[in-house]
Amino acid sequence: MTQTGQAVIAEGQTFTVAEYPVPDPAPGTVLLRQELAGICGTDLHWWQQGIEPAMLLGHENVGIIEALGKGVTTDDLGTPVKEGDRVVFHPRNSGISNGMRGPDEPFSGGFADYIYLTDPMRCMIRSEKPPQVGVLAEPFTIGVHAALRANIKIGDTVVIQGSGPIGIMCMIAARISGAGKLIVIGGPAGRLELARKLGAHETVDIGAVPDAGERKEIVLGSTPGRAGGDVVIEAAGFLPAFPEGLELVKQDGVFVEAGHFVDVGTVEVNPNRHFLRPNLRLEGVWGSRYEHFIRAVSVMESGDVDFAAVISHELPLERVREGFDALNGNYELDGRTAFKIAVRGAFAAGAG
Predict the structure, then answer these.
(1) Distance between CA atoms of 113 and 317, rounded to whole angstroms?
(2) Fewer CB within 10 A of the end CB, N or C, for the chain?
(3) How many Cβ atoms from other residues are within 10 Å of residue 151's Cβ?
(4) What dotted CATH number matches 4-129+303-344?
């Protein structure tokens, strides 16, 4: 190919847009025209700490097949694919950066005009849904993993700490797993409004109720017999949320930690009071695997959940810093609440 494309390089807390030649796909590889790339909380945490050395970020993507390398005729489910088809893919099985690759490997990060899938073990699936749905495949995979680890049963009361994208993905997964009551703790108000739209029965605004003890009373009062949640999922990625969440689990309940994908420090807990006496089961969710991705995409393709409502903003590559600043500040961008911010490639449909 003779055309060029742009990619975002992150270093420290600075973003630079660089131009690279677009490669011809080698045998067994796939070149995508990037449509949308979600800004993940993990990207944000790395950026807050200062990214060293320079990295290519972006691992929540959906794109259109620009060119297929020799030998690639189907997706990973055996469905035939061709140029022009929309696909989603699992980043850890596709050769895409998760903050691990540098500028010497252009188009290995999702904040770019193109994405080059180089791993022969990639997990790529054709999608019939719009890009605003497909871009959420990776974060919803985390929610699916959390729900499976929690072993949510029909009628369970599930408490979600965090009303950001991962929290809402966990809430949706809990809902379709059979949860009878969903309680979401988070903020700001616009995010909680979306949580209610997508299935939350009760919400607790941490801005309106800043005291953890008061929040505990509200949550327990919303559970049968004030016993607490059968399952509590921590998806805020905020250290004090961990011990707070342990206080919200009922006897013999499950606590799932799904929010701390980046090491942000240590917190003190009481082994006897928090774990032994309540006979609590603690589960950790570290990313996801192939099986979780397959399950997640099958749900998204069914069309029963309004996933597209989660995307609040679509920004061109040159505005990526504004997206990070909004998620690092008051969750406001262009005069409205920022929920899931996605970056679009220059050649995506409707870009401009």
Answers:
(1) 8
(2) C
(3) 14
(4) 3.90.180.10
